[in-house]
Amino acid sequence: MKKNKKIIVVIQARVNSSRLPNKVLLKLNGLPAIIRMIERVKLSKLVDEIWVVTGESKVNDKLVNILGSSNIKVMRGDDLDVLSRYVKVTKKTGANIIVRLTADCPLIDPNIIDMTIKLLIDRKADYASNILKRTYPDGLDVEAFTSDTLIKTVENVDDKFSKEHVTTYMHGLHKNKYKKGNFILASLEHEADFSSLRWTLDEENDLIFLNRVYSTIDPLASWQQILSHLLSNPLIYMQNRIIPTNQNAVDLNSNNYRRYSKSNKLFDRASKTIPLGSQTFSKSYIQWPKGEAPLFIDRAYGAKVVDPDGNHYIDYVLGLLPIILGYCDEDVDREVIDQIQRGTIYSLPSELEMELAEKLVKIIPSAEMVRFGKNGSDATSAAIRLARAYTDRDLVAVAGYHGWHDWYIASSSRNLGVPKSVEALTFKFLFNDLDSLTSLFKKYPNKFAAVILEPTGLVEPDKGFLKSVKNICEKNGTLLIFDEIISGFRINIGGAQKEYGITPDISCFGKAMANGYPLSAIVGSRKIMNLMEEIFFSTTFGGETLSIRASLATINKIQKLNVINKIKSYGTKLIFKLNNIIKKHGLDSNISVSKVNWWPQLVIKDLPINDELFISIMRQELLMSGLLLGSTFNLSLAHTKADILKQTLEKFSDAMKNISLILNSKDPSVYLKGEHIKRTFKVR
Questions:
Q1: 530 and 622 housed in the same domain
Q2: Domain of 42?
Q3: Are both 38 and 180 inside the same structural domain?
Q4: 471 with 549, same domain?
Q5: What are phi and psi of 137, to 5 degrees?
Q6: CATH number, residue 531
Q7: Which of 176, 244, 611, 652, by CA, is between 20 and 30 Å from 196?
Q8: Do 533 and 420 sit in the same domain of this protein?
Q9: What pLDDT score was predicted for residue 410?
Q10: By the 8 A CB rule, do 335 and 553 touch?
């Protein structure tokens, strides 16, 4: 069938990948990805020789050495002109047919290679591929072309993009931008469409997926056997399907390229039906330099997120702190997937509710009884209603942020729509300032139902402060409520009350307790919580099973892996190294990172320019470097991986270097490409 034609496979490989450095050398169940791939290519029945082509730069030396030790043929050439490498290896081998593969396809299938070659020969085509109309999983891409086709391509292309991507002129998929040859094309298509699957190696999530495949199945299994294996393992299959397939190659040098073009288009669309274009003030465009920032997230994994334009970021926002283990945590999601098959909401309570309640009672000092809500505002508002019912009083003293409901938001600048009569019931006092609290009790004796505060956070409590607040409450017959929506499961498994040894009457938990699934809890002493049977706190989804199951899995993992101490240790290292970077770039008089290791904060002071302009520029530069970072470093277990710290420091240093140059320029405002950020309101 080959008719004396010499057929070679050429695998183009490089080490300097920005999204996943050294990806072709990363281990897949013990062996480098490139070696795994070549093992599979060797099963082809039609290929005579296998070559790897790579660039001449020293960064590829390690790759060449590894290939050489495995007796694999290598051809080196121009780093940018990949097309010229194909010409060199074709001339050296005298090949008639060249099969082009890329080294990010470690599950490449030898049968697909042979079918593509056969299609090229049988159709007497110039070029054959399974990418013309995609039906195979991304990562099984095969292109075959004749030596004559290669020669004609070299003679006709002169742009950098076509020389880098080799077959642009042949297949014509970018004919609106680049030259297209007049070739006979043949398309290899499967009868079923599996193009939504991603089996390529381009980012960390891909590496995790491919390692699962290689560790659970014969490394030489056919692609159909791999597919069958995935279908019989729904967790692996579902996690693979959330990774979008590669789009056509993007020309970053094109005048038409815009880093956030899809995000901006989505914002225009969202604004027509969603006020702010977001469900949350702190996640909306007002917090970012609109026009030069991602305004939406497409997906997330581990400690990273990807925007609709395909830009990857290390995420230090974490959805405003619900993520404690990392996005898409396998152990949590496995439990949730199992629960989906059992039902998400029932007509009567489930056993899961009491399991989680019993768990919380064991670990939280103030917890004797428990009720569940869906967000922090549910819990804090229920706590206030409970305190008012228990004390038969109306006034509330607050310190910190406690949610969007009328009773609290009346005390903020965002109080539009709140009746004045409600506003008159809530009074602020200052954290760590006992005089500001005692003055309220003197002015309104026997009137306060509750004192609610965040017991710790960006600012730690002064020694004796929490104990003194508790004494004041006990003396005045007022209930003490700890809002531990943020501190719970972060500073200590039992919250700040466990960390500082002060037990309140009522506590509120949420955010991190279910690793991103919507759940909150109000806990307290039995004598107080029994009043829950009298007041009206009742929600349809309070007993929703997925979030409760997720919470059980999350708390168990936090305890088993000592997650809180690992995060604190990471935070300590991060603070020290970031402050050194800030000092290195001469910004330490304006920027610092606070010493709260479980929740570090970027502290801004003594700015030479308007603070909103500065913060806008800073966030713009952090985003450009690949860090999604607001005013705090929200940490998770996924951040504690060594590569995340290394990448964070590199990206942060890049941003600080640019910020330093901008601040020292004549007019820093000209460097802000997006819009100014807008403050919501300050509560901490």
A1: no
A2: 7-241
A3: yes
A4: yes
A5: -55, 145
A6: 3.40.640.10
A7: 176
A8: yes
A9: 85
A10: yes
One domain for residues 549 and 574: no
Give yes or no: residues 426 and 291 share one domain.
Answer: no
Distance (Å, whole) CA 164 – CA 192? 31
Dist. CA 353–CA 598, nearest whole Å: 29
**In-domain check, residue 666:** yes
Question: Residues 377-396, buried b or exposed e (16+ Cβ, 10 A)?
Answer: bbbbbbbbbbbbbbbebebb
- Sheet of 299-301: strand order equals 299-301, 304-306, 312-315, 627-628
**Per-residue model confidence (pLDDT) at position 252:** 45
User: What is residue 243's predicted lDDT score, i.e. its pLDDT?
Assistant: 61
Distance (Å) of CA 336 to CA 82, 119, 209, 333, 470: 46, 45, 19, 5, 39
Q: Are 423 and 405 in contact (CB under 8 A)?
A: no
Domain end: 542, 560, 578, which one?
A: 560
Q: Are 374 and 541 in contact (CB under 8 A)?
A: yes
Total number of domains in the chain: 3
Count the alpha carbons within 13 Å of 515 in the hemisphere toward its beta carbon.
31
110-122 and 33-41 are packed helices; what angle lies between their axes, rounded to 10 degrees? 50
Helix axes 61-69, 33-41, angle to 10 degrees: 50
Q: What is the pLDDT at residue 331?
A: 95
The verdict on residue 332 lying in a domain is no
Q: What is the pLDDT of residues 240-276, one digit of tens each?
A: 655 655 544 544 444 444 689 999 999 999 999 999 9
Low-confidence ranges of the chain (pLDDT < 50): 247-248, 250-257
CATH code at position 148: 3.90.550.10
Q: Which two tokens stand for residue 275?
A: 């006020």
Angle, helices 234-241 vs 330-340, to 10°: value is 110
| pLDDT of res. 256 | 44
Q: How many CB atoms lie within 10 A of CB 131?
A: 19
Count other Cβ atoms within 10 Å, centred on residue 98.
Answer: 24
Which residues, in sequence order, are CB contacts of 73 under 8 Å at separation 6+?
A: 49, 50, 51, 52
